[in-house]
Structure formats: C-alpha cells, structure tokens
Amino acid sequence: MTTPRYVMAIDQGTTSTRAILFDHSGAIVSTGQREHEQIFPRAGWVEHDPVEIWTNTREVIGEALARAEVTRHDVAAVGITNQRETTVVWDRNTGKPVYNAIVWQDTRTDHLCERLAGDDGADRYKERVGLPLATYFSGPKVAWILENVDGAREAAENGDLIFGTTDSWLVWNLTGGGEGGRHVTDVTNASRTMLMNLDTLDWNEEICADMGIPMSMLPEIVSSSAEVGTVSGQQLLRETPITGILGDQHAATFGQACFEVGQAKNTYGTGNFMLINTGEEPVHSDNGLLTTVAYRIGDQKPVYALEGSIAVTGSLIQWLRDNLGMIGSAPEVETLAAGVEDNGGVYFVPAFSGLFAPHWDAAARGAMVGMTRYVNKGHIARAALEATAFQSREVLDAMNADSGVDLTELKVDGGMVANELLMQFQADLLRVPVVRPKVIETTALGAAYAAGLAVGFWASQDELVANWEEDKRWEPTMDEEEAERALRLWKKAVERSRDWVD
Ligand code: G3P
C-alpha cells in the first residue's frame, strides 16, 4: 500500500458544496463544486434542500478524486467544514428530513426569539452560551420546526427525530445513516446553536426545555480534530476516517493558523465573519460580539474566540447579479465600480436579514441612501462593495473595544479578497494593513488541517504555521479625515435602516 498523499476537505457552504484535495504543503490539488438551490418561500425566509446537499456532496467527492486521478487510497482522512447554524431535522429511521434546512440567514424566528427573551431581554442566555437571542442561531429554528411542522413534535418526543447542522447531516449520511450513522457535531458548530454551555461544552438542559427541544434530538459533541467515524462501505471514500469537523469560520481561523491569542482573520464570503483568538478562557463581549469556541484539538483544552458576524456582504453582489441583473457575473462588480471615482454620495446598508454584529437588530431592512440624479450604476456597485468594508470596520472597532488592545493587522480570506479595489478601501477604512495569504481557500484548508493533524499527516500546529505564506498586503493610503467622514455618513445610513419592520 502506498502512503496517502492527500487530505480531503468537504466545504458545505451557503451557496455551494465543494470537495478539495490538499497536499502536505497545504496546496490545492483538485476541486469539485456544485451550487444548490436557494429557496425563498417568503420575504425573510431562506431554505435549502438537505437531500440536494447530500447528493451534491457525493458528486463533488467523485469530481475531486477524478480530477486528481486518484482513489480513496490516496486520501489519508476527511475533514468537514460547513455553513453554521443552518438547521436540519430528520427522521433517524427513514433518514428523511421533515422540513427543508432553515438557513442561518432566515428571520422567521423573530417573534419566537422575542417570546423567549420575555422580560429578561435578548441577553437572557448570553452568560451561558455567549450569544444573544437572535434569528441567526439554530435552537430557535429547531423550536420553529417542532411548533410548525405537522407531527414533528410528537415524533421528536418519541425519539424519532434528530437535529443537526449540515456537518451532522453529512457525517450521519457518510457513515451510512440509519442505526450505524454517527450523530455528532463538533464543539464549534455546537457553540452556534444557543444550546451549549460554553464552559462545560455540554448541552444546556434548561435552555432546551425553554425552547421545547427534547435532548434525544441532539448530536454528540466531539472535538474539532479527532476521529469521529469512518466513511461507510457504500461510498466512494469507503473506510476513510473522518477526523475533522469545524464550522466554516472556525475552520478559516484554523487555516489562517491564528493559533496565538490576539491573532484575527476576516473571511469575505456570502457574509463576513471576523474572529479573534482569545485563548483558553471565553471572553464576554460588551460591544455586540459573540463568544464562540474557535477549535478543540483532541483532548486538549478548547480555544475560544470573539466573533463579529455580518450577514450580508458577498451575497449583496449576488443580489445585484441575480435580482437586479445589474452585472452578469460577480467579478464584474469591480470593473463597474472602478469606472467611477467614488460612491457618488451613495451608502447601501444591506440589512436583508436584519443587522447582525454589532447591532443585532432583527427589524432592520436594507436601505440605499444619498441618491441624487447624478448617481449611476457604477456608484451603486461601488456602494455595494464599500458596504462590506464599512461593516468590517464596525466589527473591528467592537473587537478593539472588547479586547482593550488595537489589532495591528488583519489576515483576510474568502472569494471577495480577489477584489483589489475592495481590499484597498478596506485597509483605508481600518487604518491597519490588510494581509492576504497565498491560499485564500482557508476554510477548506482549516478542515483539512484539523483532519490531517488527527491522523499524523501533519505532525504539529507548527507545521501548519510554517505553511502559511503571505501573497499581498494593502497599507492604508486614504487621508484619515476622509476615511472618518465616510464612516460618519455610513453610520447615518445605518440609522436609517434600523427598526424598519412593524
Ligand atoms: O454563520 C454562517 C456562516 O457559517 C456562513 O458562511 O461562507 O457559507 O457564507 P458562508
């Protein structure tokens, strides 16, 4: 038998599922990718079909293997990373979901969250779980399914229904489903449900009872880098160990090798997510950030992070493409934006899912302000790009305030960091250098690293640090006063978008 040369990461994201093979240097060898349907049954509702996601997963695994012209024998281990919070409830006997996956962006649980907050307010559980009550998280989504899907409550109480984020769904299926299927999630994904105690890393029975969620529905919580199961005999990757699971933002933090306290990364995906490593103790935020588990390796102590989550950044560009037809492909936004000198006075607050960090306002809705007859498509494209940078600046300010130390540079990754105009504006606004690594697929890389560490494919985290290489850095060049003026106007625009829904 040959020694396997690769580790496979499966990245189950909001818009697509990918399988990527990485070699020992952390370089990409091959990729398979499939988009899945975004289902919008009503304003504010966003769903995915879990069966489509599972089918796509099998296909992309085959694609990645075929493109590299290798078989399962060349794959040392599989790591899974996933869109977080998105909630699947399925029947453990038939393997069928009882409802579509309710996506993290979905706001249908706003009244449910208000009801749970009661007189205690949205921070009722924050001390225990690190999160405010918000439509973003999984627990209220499970509660919604149990309250609204015919027969679901009874089946759940009989022990027939189980819940998981998409990592759980894929692991359960990859390991054969049914009685043999492993029903697990890792600490990072569990930390986004609102149901896990941050300090003990166990499910919180009281919160589950408040939400009416039977404990029998919940997956076993495992470490992010540890053996959790083996791919079943029915699948292409049969007998390959699954040894890594991380929510995608935690995986990106891992892939960026942010292993030291104070190191931070910002990922530019459908939304933006900035995480800063805060070490072995959870740090609570006074400025609208979330406390979350960054990762846990084997039996070691968990490492925590503070996170600033922004719901809409890259998906605003998709919206310009799909809903307005303003561009033919996402990269065209840069060309359009580069055709004008500035935003022409337009500020675009994309509060499509309300506003997440640092505002947490479920009642906010999108607003475009500052319009005059002068404004053209280029200005709107520019305002859409700038929205990403402004929102990231707000989150960075919250991070500096919470940690008491100012960040000196920011590592970035994700699809939008290919956009030079955005990266320069980001550095101008943040007033610190923005640094892009050679591998910008750090989410998948982080999942591969976690899986590979557990099987000795990589010997230590030091090897991962050594693999990290800088590609490009942007220094702030804009006059500071100009940047501050733009930020002032942005904040005024944010005020206009808030508290919109009756
Ligand atoms: O919390 C949601 C986040 O995990 C989604 O990430 O990259 O799929 O948009 P992404």
Q: Can you tell me about this structure?
A:
- The chain is α/β, with parallel strands linked by helices and 502 residues long.
- The protein is built from 16 helices and 21 strands.
- The strands form 6 sheets. Strands 15-16-14-13-19-20-21 form a 7-stranded mixed sheet. It has a 6-stranded mixed sheet with strand order 3-2-1-5-12-11, sandwiched between helices. The protein has a two-stranded antiparallel ribbon with strand order 4-7.
- Helix 12 packs across helix 13.
- The chain is globular, with a radius of gyration of 22 Å.
- The model has no long low-confidence stretch (mean pLDDT 95).
- The chain binds SN-glycerol-3-phosphate.
- The site of SN-glycerol-3-phosphate has 12 residues, from helix 9.
- SN-glycerol-3-phosphate is lined by residues 13-14, 83-85, 104, 247-249, 269-271.
Sum this structure up briefly.
With 502 residues, this protein is an alpha/beta fold.
Distance between the termini: 65 Å
Give, in spatial order, the strands making up the sheet with the most strands. 15-16-14-13-19-20-21
- Kindly name the structural category: alpha/beta
Strand content: 15-25%
User: Rounded to an integer, what's the Rg over CA atoms?
Assistant: 22 Å
Please tell me what the overall shape is: globular
Number of helices: 16
Low-confidence stretches: none
Helicity, in percent?
A: 25-40%
Number of beta strands = 21
* Largest sheet report: 7 strands, mixed
Q: Kindly state the mean pLDDT as a whole number? A: 95
Cofactors and ligands present? SN-glycerol-3-phosphate
